[in-house]
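Lay summary. Proteins are chains of building blocks that fold into shapes, and those shapes determine what they do. In this project we predict the shape from the chain. Here is one chain we studied, written as its sequence of building blocks.
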Amino acid sequence: MAEQSIPAQSVQQHLRRDVGLLPLFMVSAGSVIGSGWLLATLNASTVAGPAAIISWIIGVVLLIGIALVYAELGSTYPISGSTARFTWIHAGTLGGFFCGTFSYLQAMAVAPIEVVASIGYVNAQWWHGLQNTQGLLTPLGLVVAIVAMFLFTALNLFGIRWMARTNTIAMYWKILVPVGTIILIMSQRFHASNFTAGGGFMPFGIKGVFIAIPLGIVFALEGFEQAAQLAGEARNPRRDVPIAVVGSMIMGAIIYIGLQICFTGGLEPSNLVHGWSNPFGNANANFGPYYSLATSVGLGWLATVLVIDAIISPGGTGLVYLSATSRLSYSLAKTRFLPPVFSNINRRGVPWFSILFGGAFGCLLFLPFGSWAKLVSAITAASSFMYSFAPVAAVSLRRSDAERQRPYRAPVLGFLAPFSFVVSGFIIYWSGTSNVIKLDIAVAFFLVLYMIARRIDPQQQPLDFRAGAWAVPWVIGLTYLSITGGAYVGSYTKVFGLTVPYHMPFWWDLGIIAVFSLVIFYWGVHSSLTPERVREHAAEAQADAESAELDLAVPEAV
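And here is the predicted shape, written in a compact code that computers can read:
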């Protein structure tokens, strides 16, 4: 059980800035390499064929700009839970609410996703009966999943140093296994002809390439921002945060592209004659693509290692994200988006209520919401909404807080920021209409709770509607464009019984979204709070970071 909470004032009033470059890098890299590498390549190949390689390259290009933006923000404003704070600093309460909500939703869901991925492999190989034939948790599987979540919770409650040591050890394993898999499978079998089999290199056209991006590719690559979340604990944030953020992204990209090439070349050519819908033919691929490849080339010992990795890789990522969720809820409580109890810390300097709430709420997501791929698509939409707020913040803060020292400045930000914002809009659109609608419902629920909180809390800050109003049409507009989009994103033909009279043709839809995104971007940049308010918010966020000794998931000295 958590220790009795104490007021933050009674804890030593400083933030422990003793995190070196290695643990920062490991936290981001540990988030990038999770269940995505075990499952995403198969999902991408079934909708894009060999051109899934292009999907990975596009995904990297799209996200590297956002990574550079996060590197600037994280090094300039080294604040714990910074994803939820960047927008609040320049756009005030309303904008901060939307950014914080999307951040919390995506972080909250990652740990349960990783647990489900691990259980699927365990069910297939060692402990049958944890999932049914539809891939949903059985009552026994639900118990095991809840136990796993509470194990993550317990490690976090012991403090971040313990969690970081566990994650760092797991990270070395998580790098070695996929790299070794690439080398071993390609040395046993590689058919270059597979890259033109089953209808050619791009059998589903460019639409398939785009659709593959939210089917696990973005999910696999995301997580690089975790070093920015820990910037408040970094020993040298101005140097280490950009290296950790961008470096983890580049490392993940190299590994994932190598895995996709290995997967495509390692398939049996006879299974691709009739297309890519079932690239393993009659073979059982329930254990995952690389397990099936390893067994098919006679590497049974590697297949066993991969099942073990299916526990370690998702487990390490889930551990990191549960910790990230507690930091986000702590930050949201400091900005009064959540009740003050979320900012309570115990004698270990740990936000115990935030951790317990994150673990308990995450357990609710084990209900049968769908397959791994569908759940990942929904989370990808939430992540992309979260990422979209960062480019606006970077440009706006350069204008309204220009005198602040920026140890790292993202190159060509005038191009990079609007490009990254447009990219976020594309990914949200490609995530599918049903996922966008579900996300809207979740945000609406939190918005109602927040408005109730504003009514009963006399200490709530002004809504700052003018500075944050752009977030409302950004969410509503993308929902409308998704509903009226092309059939390849699952657009609706009817809404509330009313027929949707028009759907945007392909390419026109992307052009319209690009123009709409640019309008919202420049609206957000030019509607910032006054420079005085921005500096006040930045100082308040920094003071909050220094007011409590949050013992996060990193060792004292590395």
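What the prediction tells us: The first helix runs from residue 21 to 32.
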